[in-house]
Amino acid sequence: MKVILAKNAGFCMGVRRAVEITIDLVRREEKGIATFGPLIHNPQVLGLLEERGVKVLSGIPEKASGTVIIRAHGVPPKQKAALKALGVKVQDATCPRVVKVQAIIKKYQRQGYATIIIGDRDHAEVVGLMGYAEPHVQVVSGDADLPGLQLSMPYIIVSQTTQDNATFQRLSGAILARFPGGQVFETICDSTRKRQEEVKNLCQKVEALVVVGGKTSANTQRLGEIAEKMGRAVFLVETEADLDWQGLAAFDRVGVTAGASTPTWMINRVVRALESFPGKGRAGVRARLFQAMWYLLASNLYVAMGGGLLALSSALLLGLEPDPRYFLMAFGYLFAMHNLNRFANQEASKFNDPARLAFFKARQWPLLVSSSVALAGALGLASRFGAGPLLLLATMSVLGILYSVRLIPLAIARLTKVRRLKEIPGSKTFFVALAWAFVTVLLPAWEGRRYGLPVVGLFTIVLAIVFIRNALFDVFDVQGDRIVGKETLPVCIGEKKTMQVLYLLIGLVAALLFLLPGVGLLPGWARAGLPAILYMFVMVQLYEHGKICHGVKLEFGLETVFPLFSLAMLAARLLFA
Ligand code: SF4
């Protein structure tokens, strides 16, 4: 099925901020964290936060301690004061755009104006806004509320930030017609407006729309209403388990959007499920091709094959013969380590990639056995190359397997707060790249007795390419990783900075590939690898600009960088050397 993902789907700025404030408190291991009311309208995220010890207060308690977080929707000022009076630390995560509406209301309330809020009467944000406007405040949720309006003083009209623009215009117009002279503040937030506009555009390209979000989320429901008004079939789901496959079978091209409280990992799961569904009239070759891509990816066969080819092309670049054992050694090691690590890191996969986890669980024994055989084979081959390569590969294998094990002594861990290698911030992104560079560059170089600057240059190129691949995969998983407490590079320095690092590294790899042949450190045909780096740059750009969504096709496209890079080298060597 063809899936088009809306660019602005998922957490809006305010929700992301509220979740990050909460996660930061959890990461700082603060005790007694509670949110005042549910932090966001998403039961799955709330469940995860609860697992991490974040409680939800449904009202002002008699006694409390620790930190109470005010959610993105805000609260009436009286409630905030009551929380402070309890003596707890109040962390205000009210969205800055909601704060702006509160400030408008407060200003006019002081000047003697009444307030009309166009929004859902029972929504937490509206309840909070009413607190700033009291005592002269009325809520208009729909046409039925218009006849009951009474106004005998100057007044302002504001909107709930997630209000549908057309409804706001219609209702505010009707109020002004009946009570002329009111001041209108259209306070719908940009994020909501963009999302709604995007749904209208998306509906012109698709036959049906899947909206991912909490059942109680007002903005999620509004997105569905807009699509329905445009005559599209709408499927509102909280998770991929809610997808109505019978209904979806009538369509071939669907759009996906999500409410402001929906994390990306849940959107990705829905996108993956839809992508793998044949849809109307696509049960043929394309569906089988998709399945083949999925099996190659989920089993790690494709990534290991890319590593094997990289080892072959590295050997050629260092002036060695393309010995198939280089391929087999790298293939066996990478196939084994990627699979074994997947088994050891099931916690994050549960959120980020449940389809892959299910794939592993369904084939647990065949994958464990084949991974062990592949690792033994790689070590056997390394032993034929000599004691040094064997020792290097064995050390990397042990470190890889122990990556998730608590091997750092308690005395050191008390100081560093790190008990496992994987707890070193950003470590996975770097260690995996390092292991790839060892097995694809250093081992062939060692066996072929190649030392010096050419090896250093090639090692740096491969390290950087694999680092880019790893960090990009970490960007896809950043929200899930953050919630489960995984310290990947994007979690540590943010997605924006990570993307900047990636562009810098792409530039570095391109520069090295161009310059090293010029100074005789690599052969001239090494520049044949440049189109693969350009391809990588284009993939990153397409992802960043929302032209390609995270799913099987994007992952397969990224893993293709390795075969592309290596095959270009092999072809160039055949043609030009
Ligand atoms: S929808 Fe807008 S106002 Fe509401 S939390 Fe998100 S960014 Fe803030």
Helical run tally: 26
What is the C-alpha radius of gyration, as a whole number of Å? Answer: 28 Å
Structural class: alpha/beta
Biggest pleated-sheet summary: 4 strands, parallel
Bound molecules: iron/sulfur cluster
Strand % is 5-15%
**Low-pLDDT residue spans:** none
Estimate percent helicity.
55-70%
Features:
alpha/beta; Rossmann fold; Cobalt-precorrin-4 Transmethylase, domain 1; 4 domains; four-stranded parallel β-sheet; binds iron/sulfur cluster
Give the topology, please.
Layout: E1 2-5, H1 13-27, E2 33-36, H2 43-51, E3 55-57, E4 67-70, H3 77-85, E5 89-92, H4 96-110, E6 114-118, H5 124-133, E7 137-140, E8 155-159, H6 165-178, E9 183-185, H7 190-203, E10 208-212, H8 218-229, E11 233-237, H9 245-248, E12 253-258, H10 264-275, H11 285-298, H12 301-317, H13 324-344, H14 346-352, H15 354-362, H16 364-385, H17 387-401, H18 410-416, H19 427-447, H20 453-476, H21 478-484, H22 489-493, H23 495-518, H24 530-544, H25 552-559, H26 561-576
Parallel strand pairs: 1-12, 2-3, 2-4, 4-5, 6-7, 6-8, 8-9, 10-11, 10-12
The structure holds iron/sulfur cluster (SF4).
Iron/sulfur cluster binds at residues 12-15, 72, 95, 97-98, 161-162, 189, 191-192, 260.
Task: Tell me what the structure shows.
The chain has helices at residues 13-27, 43-51, 77-85, 96-110, 124-133, 165-178, 190-203, 218-229, 245-248, 264-275, 285-298, 301-317, 324-344, 346-352, 354-362, 364-385, 387-401, 410-416, 427-447, 453-476, 478-484, 489-493, 495-518, 530-544, 552-559, 561-576; strands spanning 2-5, 33-36, 55-57, 67-70, 89-92, 114-118, 137-140, 155-159, 183-185, 208-212, 233-237, 253-258. It is α/β, with parallel strands linked by helices. A 4-stranded parallel sheet has the order 1-12-10-11, sandwiched between helices. The model has no long low-confidence stretch (mean pLDDT 88). Bound molecules: iron/sulfur cluster. Residues 12-15, 72, 95, 97-98, 161-162, 189, 191-192, 260 line the site of iron/sulfur cluster (SF4).
